[in-house]
Amino acid sequence: QVQLVESGGGLVQPGGSLRLSCAASGSILSIYAMGWYRQAPGKQRELVAGITSAGSTNYADSVKGRFTISRDSAKNTVYLQMNSLKPEDTAVYYCNADLTTNFRRSVYWGQGTQVTVSS
Length: 119
Known about the structure:
By secondary structure, the chain is an all-beta fold. It contains no helices and 11 strands.
């Protein structure tokens, strides 16, 4: 069984910063990629940022220059540093991981963490 546990969400004023963390645990053999998605009320879930096992990253245009994704492979953990936050960044942020367990390769999701940007 694999679990992704997110932390670091909360309420922040516009222009502020937050750092999200997501730790993967369980019978993990290898992780190919991890990423962050978000879903705002009434909108579809969208990719925010992703990082591969080789360290390649990609970002949504709306967060380029403000958000930074990084990982600690030894801890199976991915981070999202969010700076210069805007009200439109308000959403539930989900972590996902493309990984292999003892049985197969699958994509797993965390439970989500709320980020609210408001004055």
